[in-house]
Automatic annotation (TrEMBL):
InterPro entries reported in the protein's UniProt record: ACT-like_dom_sf, ACT_dom, Preph_deHydtase, Preph_deHydtase_CS
Reactions that this protein is recorded to catalyse: L-arogenate + H(+) = L-phenylalanine + CO2 + H2O
GO CC annotations, alphabetized: chloroplast stroma
GO biological process: L-phenylalanine biosynthetic process
Location of the protein in the cell: Plastid, Chloroplast stroma
Protein name: Arogenate dehydratase
The protein's enzyme class: lyase
Pathway per the UniProt entry: Amino-acid biosynthesis; L-phenylalanine biosynthesis; L-phenylalanine from L-arogenate: step 1/1
NCBIfam families the record matches: PRK11898.1
Keywords: Amino-acid biosynthesis, Aromatic amino acid biosynthesis, Chloroplast, Lyase, Phenylalanine biosynthesis, Plastid, Transit peptide
Gene3D superfamilies with a match to the protein in the record: 3.30.70.260, Periplasmic binding protein-like II
Signal peptide residues on this chain, from the entry's feature table: none
PANTHER family on file: PREPHENATE DEHYDRATASE P PROTEIN, PREPHENATE DEHYDRATASE-RELATED
Length: 423
């Protein structure tokens, strides 16, 4: 059992590392494993020195690279545009990434794992990583979260995490759950594996369209492609439209639109935003095909540093915990919140990847094999509130591992679900 005087002191005292303005790696590759495996994830179950030294490892890697290769593309140590890095030459500065009249132009390529070694070049604008290609809902969410930012498309969620860890981006905006499709499990797993902090949330109404090449009719279609979440969100509507055709999953909605256009596929439609239709020269065959008009995806904003929790506006706190006595402990943990009238807004469980099975031997009855879980809980309180601190101190009594993923302002923007987002 670890006793901390302030349940959030680990996070609040996260050091301010000197920020490298430029570094160039040349042929050197930064390992994509930054020493942040699950074992070293800090939390209430880890010593403060452990997580501080882990942070130092990441910083020293970046700093040593900076010291030995400090130069920007111009060789003058000045400020360049991040979109010029890695061959991503398009200036992607806000939601209007690519003007509509430029739809035939080549779109910026998403970052890939192998792009993560060359030099990030730091400009004055906030650089925000998202998964997908221009026209993806995640791009719209990044623009809503950080309106004047420069958005950076990444080909995988993992790459967006690493872009922030490696200072290529300042923030990542990633989906965690959808009101129809449910949780995006991959991002829950990545939140645990990486050390970024949740610094905000943004809820985006998601309005899907069925897109096809000009003059293609529904009768010609043999296939609909999209992100698995988008396919799930439109499942019943597709059936109602008589589209009992093959449904195939791809990495993101806008990528599906791009694929249809690039390959001139007249038998395939994509589910994506109206903005994706404009960007890739497709037509909207059906508008608003999500099964529920109030379809909303919740995204989290991630940063290297936490925000200081406050009490002057609504805050949410996200935690993840595990225990070694089976799921029977769960109700005790949840009662720590119930007794203090703290509302939970989300609970999710994921396999405990380090210890997935707990074997219980009973001489008379045999051997039970229980699955072990990591529990993710969001609750409506700020870590600056004593009731939240006390709740976590109590949770700590019942858990073998506890980590605060972030305490951050709730998205309180007015409810306007019918608006077309991602357009
Ligand atoms: O493919 C996209 O456009 C995304 O931004 C991804 C994503 C998701 O992962 O859930 C985001 C929002 C929508 O719910 C559908 C797909």
């Amino acid at each position: 059992m670890h006793t901390l005087s302030h349940p959030y002191s680990n996070v609040l005292s996260y050091s301010n590392h000197s920020r490298p303005s430029f570094y160039r790696v040349g042929a050197t590759r930064i390992s994509i494993k930054c020493g942040h495996g699950f074992e070293s994830v800090y939390g209430f179950g880890s010593a403060r020195s452990d997580w501080l030294s882990d942070c130092a490892i990441l910083t020293s890697k970046v700093d040593s690279l900076k010291d030995s290769h400090v130069v920007n593309e111009n060789g003058n140590g000045g400020v360049d545009h991040v979109a010029a890095v890695n061959g991503h030459t398009s200036a992607v500065s806000n939601l209007n990434l690519v003007p509509i009249e430029n739809k035939k132009q080549i779109q910026p390529k998403p970052l890939t794992i192998t792009d993560l070694s060359p030099a990030p070049i730091h400009g004055s604008q906030l650089r925000v990583a998202y998964q997908g290609v221009p026209g993806a809902y995640s791009e719209a969410a990044a623009g809503k979260a950080y309106p004047d930012s420069q958005v950076i498309p990444c080909d995988q969620f993992e790459v967006a995490f690493q872009a922030v860890e490696l200072w290529i981006a300042d923030r990542a905006v990633l989906p965690v759950e959808n009101s129809l499709g449910g949780s995006i499990h991959r991002n829950y797993d990545l939140l645990l594996r990486h050390r970024l902090h949740i610094v905000g949330e943004v809820q985006l109404p998601v309005h899907h369209c069925l897109l096809a090449l000009p003059d293609v009719r529904k009768e010609y279609l043999t296939r609909v492609i999209s992100h698995p979440q988008a396919l799930a969100q439109c499942e019943h509507t597709l059936t109602k439209l008589g589209l009992n055709v093959a449904r195939e999953a791809v990495d993101d909605t806008a990528g599906a639109a791009e694929f249809v256009a690039a390959n001139n596929l007249r038998d395939t439609a994509a589910i994506a935003s109206a903005r994706a239709a404009e960007l890739y020269g497709l037509e909207v065959l059906e508008d608003g095909i999500q099964d529920d008009p109030n379809n909303v995806t919740r995204f989290v904003m991630l940063a290297r540093e936490p925000v200081i929790p406050r009490t002057d506006r609504p805050f949410k706190t996200s935690i993840v915990f595990a225990h070694d006595k089976g799921t029977s402990v769960l109700f005790k943990v949840l009662s720590a919140f119930a007794f203090r009238n703290i509302s939970l807004t989300k609970i999710e469980s994921r396999p405990h990847r380090n210890r997935p099975i707990r074997v219980v031997d009973d001489e008379s009855e045999g051997t039970a094999k229980h699955f072990e879980y990591m529990f993710y809980v969001d609750f409506e309180a700020s870590m600056a509130q004593v009731k939240a601190q006390n709740a976590l101190a109590e949770v700590q009594e019942f858990t073998s591992f506890l980590r605060v993923l972030g305490s951050y302002p709730m998205d309180m923007t007015p409810w306007n679900p019918s608006s077309r987002r991602g357009d």
